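Appendix B. One record, verbatim.
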Amino acid sequence: MFCPLEQRIQYLLQQCTFNQLKEIHAFILTTSLLHDIHIKSKFLRRSTEFGAMEYPNLVFSQLGGFSNTEVMVWNAMIRGYAYNGPGDGCIYMFDEMLQRGLKHNNFTYPYVLSSCSEMGWFGKGRKVHAQIIKSGFESNFVVSDSLLNMYMKMSDSSELGGTRNGKLNDARMIFDDTCVKPVELWNRMISKYVSTGDIECAKQLFDNMPERDVISWNSMISGYARIGDVANARDLFEQIPEKNVVTWTSMIGAYSGSGDLKTAACLFEKMPCRNVVSWNAMISSYTQNGKYEESLDLFVKMQMEGVDSDGFTFVSVLSACSNLGALGFGKWVHSLINDCSQLGVIVGTALMEMYAKCGDVNSAFTMFIKIWNKDIFCWNVMIKSLAIHGRIEDAVKLFFLMQKIGLMPNSYTFSSTLFACCHGGLVEVGREIFHSMERDFGVCPKLEHYGCLIDLLSRNGRLEEAEALVREMPFKPDIAVWGALLGGCRVKSDLKLAEEVIEKASVLEANEPGFYVLLSNIYASAGQWQEALTAREKMEEKKVWKKAGSSSVIHDHDHDLSMDG
């Protein structure tokens, strides 16, 4: 039986601040409670709940440190390291217990297994599992649950080799050996199979469940949706005893993922209750399938119904605005975003890209300046946007600025910057940037990077160098590379090379009318009218035609799209 003083201390420990904890510590040291193992272990345990291990280590040393033989005290320290880190401190304490002949119990193992999982020490985790079997705690629910968590996490790791589903077999064995399986445990195992794409094993478990809840049904519906099996998803959707908003949203995702937006929209309209995730699912489905006007219309309806938008909503809608060139609508969406910094770099980048694609590069750059913690994708979009709008020097300056602040360029950064150099005629700068890719940044140039440099050289009269690069590069030229070289032939009026390029490019059977038009123009520039006519006739023989240009104009009020030939 606890005395009133002990009960009072235990009550205070549950709700005390760190400063109050120190006062309790001083009180314990001056009373007989110092010899109460339950009070000492509870105090030590509470001391680990303030985010650091310095003070708990002091308390542990006052309790005898490593010479202490009370397992409860060691467990409190192991728990503290598991929660606060470093994780290897937890493992060290665990191993020290063995060295000192102290027996681990069912309160020890879960924290150790958690630390093994967090650090990716799965080899050590297996050894701990072996000790669990020897000590007879494998049947303990909390221990087996911790083992299951570790093996599930191990299935995501590439450290130990093997296929993901193969490594999931270990988790399945733990699951099968667990005596008491609440529905939550079944759901976790099913969800893990679904995440790996093993719907067959997930369905097998689902069919064997003694009882199911809505999460069980939703996991299977989303699983079938992921692999595009709409029929089985719909079959479960019709069978489920009680649908919730996740059920409906998963089914909408299944239909939209298969391209059946009409049925997805019908389900959306039938939903008895919608949340922001449901609206986002339908809006993003329209955007991803190129139905940009429908995406904007649905967003307007969402606003009229008073549903609060989130970052996912704004990204989908701004993407639709970008593709439509709907600057006015995009500005309205911007006005609805109270604080871009709170929504993060993804929404900020979407706004920036919308302004750039709608022709307002100045507003895009202003948005770029305002974004905190810009990631590499954000910088890449701004560099490419500046280049497209003819702000070549600014694009190149950004490329070097991002390196100064410690951000490493990636493959797309180089593509965007080389694109800028190409359209600005910056031959020396572009050549140096290209050669710096692998030399300074370890980024291996791809065909698109070679294509940019070849285009840059060809546009600026360096046809021999461009031709040599085509021969030396470790890729077979594609239609874009041959097109760039052919453009250089026009600059230099090199008819012989132009004919060779056409002959080599014809092997690709790309049926690009621009090739023949360009060759015809080269002949015409040289006054060889018959050859120019022959090039046009070849284009007709191959039945390739130059399409008329088109432009889109969006009316911000009614979203009507008109196409002008």
